[in-house]
Amino acid sequence: MQRRHFLTSAAAFAGGALLSTRVSFAQPDTRKSRFVLVILRGALDGLAAVPPLGDPDYARLRRELALHPPGESAGALKLDGFFGLHPSLVFLQECYQGRELVVLHALASPYRERSHFDGQDVLENGTTRPHALQTGWLNRALTAVRAPSGREMGVSLGQNLPLVMRGPAAVTSWSSSKLLAPDDDTLSRITDLYAGDRLLAARLADALTANAIAAGDDAAADVMSAQAAAGNARGKARYAEVVRAAGEFLRREEGPKVAVFDTHGWDTHANEGAAQGQLAARLGELDAGLAALRQELGPAWNDTAVLLLTEFGRTAALNGTRGTDHGTATAAFLLGGAVAGGRVLADWPGLAPRALYQGRDLAPTLDLRSVLKCVLTEHLAAPPRRLEQEVFPDSAGARPLRGLIRA
Amino acid sequence: MSEDITAAIAANRFGLGARPGELALIGADARGWLRTQLRAPPPSLADAELLSSAQILAQALKLRREIQAERRQQAAQGGAAADEPAQQRLPQFLRPIYATEATARLRLAVSTERPFLERLTQFWTNHFAVSIDKQFLAGLAGSFEREAIRPHVLGSFTDLLLAVETHPAMQLYLDNYLSVGPNSPVAQRRARREAPRIGINENLAREILELHTLGVGGGYTQQDVTSFAQVLTGWSIGGEGGRFAGGEPGRFVFRAELHEPGAKMVRGRRYADEGFGQGAAVLRDLARERATAHFIATKLARHFITDEPPPQVVARLADAFARSGGDLPSVYAALVDTREAWLEPLAKYKTPADYVVSSFRGLAVPVEAGRAPLAPFEILGQRTWQPGSPAGWPDRSADWDGASALMKRIQWADAVGARLGSRRDALELAPQLLGANLTTATRQALAHAASAAQALTLLLAAPEFMRR
Description:
The complex is a heterodimer.
Chain A: H1 10-15, E1 34-40, H2 46-49, H3 58-62, E2 77-78, E3 84-85, H4 90-97, E4 101-108, H5 116-125, H6 137-144, E5 154-157, E6 171-174, H7 184-193, H8 198-214, H9 218-229, H10 234-237, H11 240-251, E7 258-263, H12 278-297, E8 304-310, E9 330-335, E10 343-345, E11 366-367, H13 368-380, H14 384-391
Parallel strand pairs in A: 1-7, 1-8, 4-10, 4-11, 5-6, 5-7
Antiparallel strand pairs in A: 2-3, 4-9, 8-9
Helix pairs in contact in A: 6-14, 11-12
Chain B: H1 3-14, H2 22-26, H3 30-36, H4 53-76, H5 84-111, H6 115-127, H7 137-149, H8 157-165, H9 168-173, H10 185-193, H11 203-212, H12 222-231, E1 235-237, E2 252-254, E3 264-266, E4 269-271, H13 276-287, H14 290-304, H15 311-323, H16 328-337, H17 352-362, H18 375-379, H19 403-420, H20 426-434, H21 440-447, H22 452-461, H23 463-466
Antiparallel strand pairs in B: 1-2, 3-4
Helix pairs in contact in B: 1-3, 4-5, 5-7, 5-17, 8-13, 11-12, 14-15, 15-16, 19-22, 21-22
């Protein structure tokens, strides 16, 4: 049996009624819209995060690591009866029930090989090939979105800019500081020293702006990191600093509206675990981080969409070391107060031997770029034509979804 | 081009940053200074404190077994589930080893008179990256570098490759020690008992092809990965209990009972089953591939010349690699002889590690024992031996030149200035560190600084000190 799951109705999805060709949108208020992109580097096991409990082949492939139905011990959390949610993802389930989470499944970027590094490159560069462009889709999308005050529209929460945020649009980066800022006189002398150096001059100007925005929070962040170093509440603290900074930037009217941060530790080749274990711990930290993000954002959460993406999925079957190797399609999450949620969006290909991609991986049925185009248009008011031409070149086959963001 | 600029390039680009007096020592023969460093055998980093991988791993495995046994006993007695102090015993054992190893490495980098050789060593460690965020690796990354990398930096690529892939650290890091052939004697016995199935883990096989030899575009298929993973079954580590009992504890061992029997095809070649020899034969062939020569040449050119090296430069280095059968000194000699390497004096943006090491060298900062000297690497974003992925640290300007990263360097430079300003003369040091790269603007800024501390901060923050 191949059970197919659709957004609202299977016929509508397959028939293209949900795919926009030329539609005029009610212009969202982009001064309010906030967007957070979280990259899960290392290839999240989508079949563990969002197990297809109703698929007749799931338990056979996952053997002793298969999650049980909701209600049983080591059971998954309930989603829609066919799909469950990993038991670590309690906040995500709460979002789902509150209609603030869309789960996307059997999703993949156009990349079909199995290198993390090339996979992440395609995930971020927005084309169909690794290294085809040296800029990222999010940055290019920002150039198409009018900045309200000429300030940076985006911030990378980490010391350096990930590829997805690199490009012509002005963006900045921030990471918490355990060192004190030099005095103004030294900084102004260094600014003079960089006058003839375009790269360093631009970077220093960005850093000074970002530091000013986050200044109110440095002391608190120091305490947090000291606690983390002491090994206290390590799990919960993993994303505490970054989430705090995200809140600090995104709450402001005039601050960046788009934030990006990375998470690591998803490459579960051995001893992946099920309801408990390695992956469960990582998912739990991520879930706690997202819950903290909602709290940090306060009322701004209502205007926020958070997208969680990974470069590809993992093998449908367990490997020989109770883990999973590099695969193809996987799951992604779109959550936030701005999201028209409470559903799993998947054209489910099934896990029967012949349904698997190259006989081993969950087959992709949804192009990542269809999701991104929808979010960028509906949430950030990026003009569709520029998305087609500049942001996602050669993506005519990936027609935008519709209705992921609340009207 | 003036002799002066070649000395600055040799010390800062090929080396690890000039120490006071180094530019004068290099003088007119920059290429000769580099070549001389490749003649004697590499130093072994001998230090009575440093244990071998086998010693470290055997102890760590023993410790883990003890902790597990205690936990089982507690569970049987209905005691508390997780004993926090027991959990901490493994990191408590491994962390001091990491600190000792990383400090010893830093001390060598700061004091060496063969900085080109040391940069090459670090290049290869990063090429064959392991990362301390995986269990046991904090204790093994240092001994991995000492045992698998250092002895072969001036040898052949084939020997280097074999040493790396058979090192317990790599076996652990990329999970291969657990990989079992589905038709191996052990798997067959388990199947008869209907025990949970065990089998292949393809992680190491894939990364050898993608990251260690051919490169991602180097021409291999999923079938090659799977087949190579079968070839590598049985490559394991001695001493762990259960399925992994036997063999010398903590050392690489070939376990015939885990090895997938039979001949296998990898990249169109048939490899007869000679046990361990089957995998060694595949590695030897991979080391000789043109794609491997090209991949290594590209990475070397990117590291030593410019972020996007011209194709003809890469081709020349690849030719040197192929012609010499992967004799590494021949490749390094071709690199030193490459005209393009000497054209643009500051083509590379320093990584955080380059930045810290060159500061330590330039200011003759003593490397004390303990964790303190390692802190700047962490603060500036490049904790030693923690690239976080088997691809190693990236090697382009855009990967390191973020705004926040720059601010961290400036803040650190400010702290160094405050600490050492009264004991170092920035104006006197500047020409010794930067040579012909020193600009008038920087010299004037130093001369007009408000304090000796500020002058030292400005020297470390100068554009020509941010690059190499």
